[in-house]
Design a protein that fits this description.
Elements (H helix, E strand, L loop, with lengths): L3 E6 L4 H9 L7 E6 L9 H11 L3 E4 L13 H22 L2 E7 L22 H15 L4 E6 L2 E2 L6 H11 L2 E5 L3 E2 L2 E2 H18 L7 E4 L6 E2 H11 L5 E5 L19 H7 L6 H12 L1
Parallel strand pairs: 1-2, 1-3, 3-4, 4-5, 5-10, 6-9, 7-12
Antiparallel strand pairs: 8-11
Helix pairs in contact: 1-6, 2-3, 3-4, 5-7
This protein binds NADP nicotinamide-adenine-dinucleotide phosphate.
The site of NADP nicotinamide-adenine-dinucleotide phosphate has 25 residues, from helix 1 and strand 4.
Amino acid sequence: VNKHKIIVSGKDGQLGWELMQIAPKLEQNFEFIFIGRQELDLTQATAIEAFIKHHQPTYFINCAAYTAVDMAETDTENAAVINTAAPKKIASTCEAINCKLIHISTDYVFDGEKKKPYNPTDLCNPLNVYGLTKMHGEEAIAQSNCKSIIIRTSWVYSSHGKNFVKTMLRLMSDRKEINVVNDQIGNPTYAADLAKAILDIVLKDVESNVIRDIGKVYHYSNTGNISWFNFAQSIQQISNKVCIVNPIPSSSYPTPAKRSNYSVLDCTVIEEDFDIEILDWTSSLIKCLALLK
Ligand SMILES: NC(=O)c1ccc[n+]([C@@H]2O[C@H](COP(=O)([O-])OP(=O)(O)OC[C@H]3O[C@@H](n4cnc5c(N)ncnc54)[C@H](OP(=O)(O)O)[C@@H]3O)[C@@H](O)[C@H]2O)c1
């Protein structure tokens, strides 16, 4: 049997790792190649092209990114190479060998002024360097001729890697009291849910060619609009931590990168186009916290 080959970048990151956990279920029909920085350094354009052409995949799922939002403010060049130049090279190479690209982007392409859930076609206006380099990555893919989709997600967490949930658990064990901002509203996304959604889309595409456009943008997050403070409170309650969680305004917690105070994503298009089920944020948080116990 000729198996479809899928390259997944960012295998050591949250989303790449979650994809690696589900991949064995699909190994009858797919051959997965999971890659991290060691297998392919995305700052090396010629290496990207050589690697993809060598392996001749049918799908490339790009989960690698420069995700250090605050560091990107000063490490601008590196952020641009990984978030803009790399997806551009991946897209042009995929186009050349007829490989479909699934690229991941971010809610930080928006400025938060809308105050209503963002649709994929809403105007982008990033507030920080990370968001700008991710937006340029989206644009580069859209300007290629590569059959591709771009999935924007937000507030990603997993039992693996660095994220808000794990940071909160650590702080709640170490401290009697913590302060968390309550004026930034968004949707948490469990990376395991997004990983499943991505592979569901790949399966649908194999069946009925659903990835037909170039750089079509989708939104995916768990449902429920909450603040980081609400999120922290739930983490505390579900995991039974003895710690007081105080709400504070963002102005009391200055960071190098400016952050939007509203980044709720409207996910109806991905639900409709691919028949994807979007799960409630609390049930997913409970699952992740159970794994972290
Ligand atoms: N995390 C969030 O809250 C969030 C929110 C919205 C959107 N997103 C997007 O979702 C996607 C997945 O995010 P994530 O949370 O899984 O990110 P993550 O945990 O930070 O993982 C990103 C991975 O990219 C790899 N990478 C960075 N530079 C590389 C390079 N030069 N060559 C090869 N690999 C490189 C990193 O490798 P090393 O481990 O070696 O550094 C890391 O494993 C990204 O596109 C991100 O922009 C994330």
